[in-house]
Design brief:
The complex is a heterodimer. By secondary structure, chain A is an alpha/beta fold. Chain A folds into two domains: 4-277, Alpha-Beta Complex (Spore Coat Polysaccharide Biosynthesis Protein SpsA, Chain A), CATH 3.90.550.10; 344-436, Hexapeptide repeat proteins (UDP N-Acetylglucosamine Acyltransferase, domain 1). Chain A contains 17 helices and 30 strands. In chain B, helix 4 (87-97) crosses helix 8 and helix 15 crosses helix 17 (486-502). Chain B is globular and about 80 Å long. Chain B contains 23 helices and 28 strands. In chain B, 45% of the residues lie in helices and 19% in strands. Chain B is of the alpha/beta class. In chain B, strands 16, 17, 19, 20, 22, 24, 26, 27 and 28 form a nine-stranded parallel beta sheet that branches. In chain B, strands 5-4-1-6-13-8-14 form a seven-stranded mixed beta sheet. In chain B, strands 18-21-23-25 form a four-stranded parallel beta sheet, with no helix packed on it. Classes of the chains: A alpha/beta, B alpha/beta. The A-B interface holds A 142, 148, 150, 152, 164, 167-168, 175-183, 185-186, 189-196 and B 147, 150, 160, 162, 164, 167, 176, 183-191, 193-203. Strand 11 of chain A pairs antiparallel with strand 11 (185-189) of chain B.
């Protein structure tokens, strides 16, 4: 087959996702009661006809990732050392997997991405049409200041790509400057410098180019910061394609270099990097139905069939983005995409199997995990409740995330709160914008015991 | 009901007429250089008229007022400015006179050759933007040169412009003109990018046409550092704190728009080719089609006499030119009144007015001639006449004396005090040599404002009759304020003294007359010169070097070895220069033709003897 895919699922997002990813990579955070990475695998393997997917993770997260990937044929998990960079992870995946080695093109996607199938197809098609070394997916948006990039584009070809943070750090006065060489302008007299594009971290590489670029990379080599910008600038350093004489000379020169140095891949003429801009995500989210009505019936069906939307592009860089994605999936569950049988749609929420909801519970744009327990008269809005979590009676939970086996005791009011795994929020808490972990209430072990009665009493009672 | 809308229409019309009546056009400078048989100025007037400017002001200096008035005719008002050192000065005075009242008004720089349809759209866009953002006071009109056009013009046109502007608002965020920025990179601060897209382009050509609000003139008045338009635009854009008030309008897409600035001979050729091609530039003039010659894509003036068997391709032949039999011209620009001999070959060259080229001469590419060429001469490529070598060639010197109209033109240019800034085009062919002649450029271009100011101070002080002592004090203050030394001022002061001495004299004045004038002046200025040049022989040699290299190019009489020798002697006699300094200078500049000339050599020999005598005298005394 033609293309394979490497999904990078080795990070938990550390401080940004504290405390909800403790012990979990971002890729397996539950979205609509299923691990995030399964959306990506479904898009790639089922909808886009990718032949082979390898999900790369570290030994720390191996179990969680294997559990998520188990359902997919043609997908496997590769475990790499924690210290290798993203390029190193891809290198190991490529060298160890027979299926990937046979592919001509390799998609490399971050496990924290959620992509609609059409955006992936567009990426792959553009890559083939343009015949470039790498095609990257970007989206419009300035919502993520820390992640913002400065991209120098010539048409849709990337001439340079630097992180704004790096530029700021490099500058002596802390005020970053992007430098555009006049020599580059001679080669390509019309350039656009953009700061309104975010790298989605989804790339298609031609395998030769990728191998050439990562072959001798060090342990800290990063795809985003080293490999892709390297491929982009190499194209503009080589003589223009229309200069046939110069081209021949260049080829010969590179061939000579090869003979001397014995390095492989150098004789391949750089073909550059092209950026594909994803369709505006906001429009899709705000008016999914209006958009679909405009489209034809067939398209509409296809669109509905996709759990996130065919053109959807998102990357979970923060808790806010994660919550937004969860809401998006819940909202789209109104449409006809199959719900795996066990997951139910109820009262504006997705409810996992064996979850127990008390009487007079109000749910809105919320996901309730499997075996979770929600007490009577609870109001849960725009929130995510993981498997086995307990929210006792009379609680109001808004814009919050309650992790596995966590407990929110009676009559608490939470707004924009993250409750870590197995953490306990005391009764009658009024909380806003806070994070709890299991250790937050170190002395609370006794309280837990004391409060066990209300749980057991209110829990089963409410299930009645 | 029926009448109501009519009334409204009438009212609207009145308003429109009022607005249009206000629109003023300003042509800065006197672009009298001809492209395809028309003065550049006329193209500017066309553009302004098309854009609907009803009141056109043509600004010129006193030396050109007559010629400009002839060219403008009744199409606009000619405003004469006296004693202005730069375009900036002129605009400052224009602001004082208060004649520009319309907001916006269109300003065309003199070096601009353009034909723009739809400039009124730019004006409307400017007015609209100004309403929303009162800071947006300048709209620079740029043309998409395209990759090929840009490459064709750029290698010598100093117009290697890199512009960066915001893609949505068109606010200019970087303006890299090679004059003002010589960096290899364009640096854009991230805060300027402001989360949007910024286009960085090197394929744009500055048309020299701006749509301005009156604030632009105020800002010239506020800042005396602004000497010309380039200074102005580059500074306005670089000034982040003031909010970058310049915007760009790029002429692109379908529609008829052309604009380019004439910066040097190749620019003249490039624009002429565009005009002759007829598809990009202003409409080509209708010329003669002689039957006895092959004419390809050229303009031949109806009054030209074309010899049999001439081949003329991509050339412009001015009025009253006589072309000999079998002449071959390609990319040639022949000004009016020239005589080109039989079988002459001219390729990619420019001939000034009234130049005579003898039979069988070859004028290869890059030549710019203000004076004639003897029969049979084969010039080297890129020859400039008059150039440094010219004095050695007696034939040419003779020809030059007889060439009609050559010298008055030169005199006119010399009188042109705006030459540094007002569109390089209006200095014409003769002075372009300065641009490509590094030693001359080193001090005589606008970049050396200090030298220019010193020169102006001395000349104006002399004209005002100030005593030399007070002039010296004035110079001292100025050099302190500029953090310079007297030595820096010395070449410029010498230049001024020479100018005062030579300028009143007729071009053909005898050596005796020149020396007499010089003696008077040097006697007058001795205290000042002695102070400036100082006592150190090395410093004095430095001043002398400038005399021999730079000044000899500017002051034609000084290139005469007799005059040069006399100058040295006068300065020596006046005790401005020591014998040591002169001898050191001679040793340093042994290759200079002036120093090597027999006249100067004999003076040096005399000096040496004198020196030895002195030494002997002193040693015997001790």
């Amino acid at each position: 087959m033609f293309h394979g895919c490497v999904i990078l699922a080795g990070t938990s997002g550390e401080s940004r996702f504290f405390p909800i990813t403790e012990g979990l990579p971002k890729a397996v955070l539950p979205v609509g009661n299923r691990p995030l990475v399964t959306y990506l695998l479904r898009t790639l393997l089922v909808k886009c006809g990718v032949a082979r997917c390898v999900v790369v993770t570290t030994s720390r997260y191996e179990r969680a990732v294997r559990g998520a990937v188990a359902d997919f044929r043609n997908a496997d998990v590769a475990v790499v050392d924690e210290m290798v960079g993203s390029a190193g992870a891809v290198r190991e995946a490529l060298s160890n997997d027979e299926g990937l080695r046979q592919c001509r093109e390799v998609l490399v996607v971050s496990g924290e991405c959620c992509l609609g199938f059409r955006s992936v197809l567009r990426l792959v098609e553009t890559h083939r049409l343009q015949g470039v070394d790498c095609t990257m997916l970007v989206r419009r948006g300035t919502d993520d200041a820390e992640d913002s990039e400065v991209m120098v584009l010539s048409g849709d070809r990337v001439a340079d790509k630097v992180s704004a943070m790096e530029l700021d750090d490099d500058a002596e006065d802390g005020e970053g400057r992007i430098r555009v060489a006049k020599a580059l302008l001679r080669r390509s007299p019309r350039l656009v410098v953009r700061t309104d594009l975010l790298d989605v971290h989804a790339y298609v590489f031609s395998k030769e180019a990728l191998l050439g670029a990562i072959e001798n990379g060090g342990p800290s080599q990063s795809l985003r910061a080293d490999v892709v910008p390297g491929l982009a600038t190499a194209y503009f350093r080589a003589p223009p394609e229309d200069l046939v004489e110069g081209y021949d000379l260049y080829e010969r020169m590179m061939a000579d270099d090869d003979d001397d140095g014995g390095g492989g891949g150098g004789s391949i003429r750089p073909r550059g990097v092209v950026a594909v801009v994803a369709k505006e995500p906001r429009q899709q989210q705000q008016q999914p139905r209006a958009q679909q009505r405009e489209g034809g019936d067939a398209e509409e069906k296809e669109e509905d069939d996709d759990p996130v939307g065919a053109e959807f592009v998102a990357r979970i860089r923060s808790i806010g983005a994660y919550a937004q994605l969860c809401r998006h999936v819940v909202a789209r569950a109104n449409l006809t995409f199959p719900l795996d049988g066990k997951i139910l749609k109820r009262d504006g929420a997705l409810v996992g199997p064996d979850a127990r909801l008390g009487e007079k519970v109000t749910l809105k744009n919320t996901t309730i995990g499997a075996r979770a327990v929600i007490g009577t008269r609870c109001k849960i809005n725009n929130s995510v409740v993981f498997d086995d979590a307990v929210i006792e009676e009379g609680c109001v939970v808004q814009n919050s995330i309650v992790c596995k086996r966590a407990t929110v005791k009676t009559k608490s009011n939470l707004n924009e709160v993250q409750v870590g795994e197995a953490a306990v929020v005391p009764a009658n808490s009024q909380l806003k914008q806070e994070a709890f972990t299991a250790g937050s209430f170190g002395d609370d072990d006794d309280d837990d015991d004391d409060d066990e009665d209300p749980i057991s009493s209110s829990g089963p009672a409410s299930l009645g | 009901m029926g009448k109501h809308p009519n009334k409204r229409d009438a009212a609207a019309e009145v308003v429109v007429v009022e607005q249009e009546a206000c629109l003023q056009g300003v042509v800065v400078s006197d672009g009298l250089v001809e492209v395809c048989g028309r003065a550049v100025l006329e193209y500017s007037l066309d553009v302004l008229e098309k854009a609907g400017a009803l009141d056109i002001l043509v600004l010129c200096n006193e030396a050109n007022a007559g010629a400009v008035a002839d060219a403008v005719g009744s199409r606009g008002r000619v405003l004469e400015f006296r004693g202005c050192g730069s375009a900036g000065d002129v605009l400052r005075e224009l602001d004082q006179r208060g004649v520009v009242k319309s907001d916006p008004f269109i300003m065309v720089s003199g070096s601009s050759a353009c034909a723009i349809d739809g400039l009124e759209k730019v004006v409307a866009a400017h007015a609209e933007r100004k309403k929303k953002n009162p800071e947006a006071t300048l709209t620079v009109v740029l043309r998409e040169g395209g990759r090929r056009a840009a490459e064709r013009i750029r290698p010598t046109l100093k117009d290697d412009l890199v512009v960066a502007y915001e893609a949505d608002t068109r606010r200019v965020v970087a303006w890299h003109d090679p004059d003002s920025w010589s960096t290899a990179c364009v640096e854009l601060p991230l805060k300027v990018l402001g989360g949007g897209a910024v286009e960085v382009r090197r394929d744009l050509v500055d048309t020299g046409v701006d749509v301005c609000s009156p604030e632009v003139l105020w800002r010239y008045s506020e800042n005396f550092d602004y000497q010309n338009r380039r200074d102005f635009v580059a500074n306005e854009v670089a000034n982040l704190e003031l909010g970058q008030r310049a915007h760009a309008y790029v002429l692109e897409g379908p529609g008829y728009a052309y604009g380019a600035r004439l910066e040097d001979p190749r620019g003249i050729d490039a624009v002429a080719q565009d005009v002759l091609g007829g598809w990009a530039g202003p409409p080509p003039p209708i010329g003669r089609r002689p039957r006895n010659a092959i004419v390809v894509a050229s303009f031949v003036s109806p009054t030209t006499i074309v010899g049999d068997g001439c081949e003329i391709s991509r050339s412009v032949i001015g009025e009253d030119v006589v072309l000999g039999d079998g002449a071959k011209l390609s990319h040639a620009h022949v000004a009016s009144g020239c005589r080109v001999g039989n079988r002459v070959h001219i390729t990619r060259a420019i001939l000034g007015r009234g130049v005579v080229v003898g039979d069988d001469a070859v004028v290869p590419r890059g030549c710019v001639l203000a004076h004639g060429v003897a029969p049979g001469t084969i010039l080297a490529e890129y020859t400039r006449l008059p150039g440094p070598e010219e004095e050695e060639d007696d034939d040419i010197a003779n020809l030059r004396a007889t060439a009609p109209g050559g010298d008055p033109e030169l005199e006119r240019r010399k009188a042109d005090l705006w030459r540094d800034d007002w569109g390089d085009d209006d200095r014409g062919e003769e002075e372009e040599e300065e641009e490509e002649n590094p030693p001359a450029e080193s001090w005589s271009t606008a970049s050396n404002l200090f030298a220019k100011t010193v020169r102006d101070m001395v000349i104006s002080g002399y004209k005002a009759g100030s005593p030399v002592d007070s002039m010296l004090m004035e110079l001292n203050c100025y050099k302190l304020s500029e953090n310079r030394t007297f030595l820096d001022a010395a070449p410029a002061a010498l230049d001024a003294v020479l100018a005062i001495a030579f300028e009143p004299l007729a071009p053909g004045a005898s050596t005796m007359a020149l020396v007499r004038a010089l003696k008077n002046q040097i006697d007058h200025w001795t205290p000042l010169l002695a102070k400036l040049v100082g006592d150190d022989p090395d410093d004095q040699a430095h001043s002398l070097s400038s005399l021999a290299t730079d000044l000899a190019h500017v002051h034609a009489p000084l290139a005469n070895p007799d005059v040069f020798r006399a100058t040295l002697q006068l300065l020596y006699d006046a005790d401005v220069l020591t014998d040591e300094a002169i001898l050191e200078f001679a040793a340093l500049n042994a290759n200079n033709p002036l120093v090597a000339s027999p006249q100067v050599a004999s003076f040096l020999a005399w000096l040496e003897e004198e020196d030895e005598d002195d030494d002997e005298a002193s040693s015997s005394a001790s």
